[in-house]
Amino acid sequence: MNAEKRRKKRLRNLVCIVYCSLQLLIVLALFQGMGSLLHKLVPAGIDLSQIEGKIVAVDDEQENTETIDENKLIVCLDAGHGGKDNGSDYRLRYEKNDNLKITQAVAAYLADKEDVQVIMTRSDDTFLSLEERTTFANQNNADYFVSLHRNTGEGNGVETWIRSDADDKTQALAKNIMDNLDAAGISRNRGVKKGTQKSESKDYYVNLHTNMPACIVELGFMNSPTDNQLFDANVENYAKAIGDAVLKTYEAYGKDGADATESVEDVPGTEEQISTETGEGTTGQVLQNTQIENVSSLDATSHDWGLGSHTDDENRPLDAVNAQETYGKYNVYFIGDDTKDIYLTFDEGYEYGQTESILNTLKEKGVSATFFVTEPYAKDNPDLVRRMIDEGHVLGNHSVTHPSAGMPSLSLDKQENEVTENHAYIKENFGYDMYLFRYPTGRFSEQSLALLNNCNYKSIFWSFAYLDYDVNNQPDHASSLQKMKDKLHPGAIYLLHAESETNAAVLGDFIDAVRAAGYGFKNF
């Protein structure tokens, strides 16, 4: 009997030992996995200790302005995003970290050259506004400015952006960078591009507001596994390629980079870096649409825009897809491109104290949205409208009177007045050219679509909306957030009413969910 008890006791002890061993193995595996995760979140930087004193960053420059040797070639390297602004992200990989890693590598390579002075807008995980970056370069008389980023969206490869009126030096700098990177090994050479993704006549903020040859290098797509593998394997090679390109440009054109572009007035930059750092939200756009003849002969039948429940295999509402195919010729959008990006839009007819919270959240998350305002709203809330513009958002036209029966209920002349009078008011009082229009109540006709096209506007409808506009009967927070997440689809245009307390409350969580699903944010 005692022998049997001892046998059972030994068996229990053995089971405990095996169990504890398994637990220990699990803990070790978790630590190993956490190490891998931390490597993704905070990739190892380049050791700059060997060249200490040869590189000046913003904080160093503020402490000691004598450290910059103006007799040398001064190269300003700008690691895009930083601090609270992560930039693009993909599976817990943040653009700001990749930007800093490659920028540190370029800095280390160039600083080792005897006649080169490297200055950096940031040398650690610090947030800087666009204005602070360009001011730092200008005040220190940099000869060249190179801003390093990663891309996101559909596609792969490397591209470089320069200002729309770039001179020969700037074009040579960008071409040399692309040629060298191509030779170093990239998935695709997407070339040198002028202006911005939206317009060849607009410019990214850092390209426009620097007084020397400047460019933005997009080093592959964050959501491309191939580009990520190439980036990780070639940081040193890419750094050498970019550094040598700067030196080659300097050899050809000399040090007088400050004369490369006309000096611009000191225009305050946005406090937050928005999405792709366009800085376009300050003046709007002027479209030149192909004019449609005989508008009055088109169908004047009024249609109520709404969405059914049927979707395609990408969760896109079939009504929106079909409407886009039918009416797209009128420069109208019921749904965006079939890419993993969405458009956040807010309708502003009345102010109920929620817009400030919405703007705060967008600023915190680094997202640019579109706000469609009526003329009375702009008159009653000029500070909010000015803030929308100053923080890089797009201002859209929502008519003067917001006719309850819809635009088609009015004569063509009155419809045009609804558009042009609000446009003129915003232009006169805020210096902003609106170019997007949202139809009050969603009612439209072929005539009204053609009329808006001839007013040089894009008409923006939506592929998601819900009952959020009744301030006295607001929907539940949790169910509303879930509905917004469930309807996520490529090219989604979200219509949200800014008077909604629910929208203000769940916006931050929704933005986080969108990014977690691998989507980005765009504007028209």
TrEMBL record:
Its EC number is 3.5.1.-. GO terms for cellular component: membrane. The keyword Hydrolase applies. CDD domains: CE4_BsPdaA_like, MurNAc-LAA. Residues 340-522 form the NodB homology domain. GO terms for molecular function: N-acetylmuramoyl-L-alanine amidase activity. Keywords: Hydrolase. InterPro entries: Glyco_hydro/deAcase_b/a-brl, MurNAc-LAA_cat, NODB_dom, Polysacc_deacetylase_ArnD, Spore_PdaA. This is Peptidoglycan-N-acetylmuramic acid deacetylase PdaA. It comes from Roseburia intestinalis.
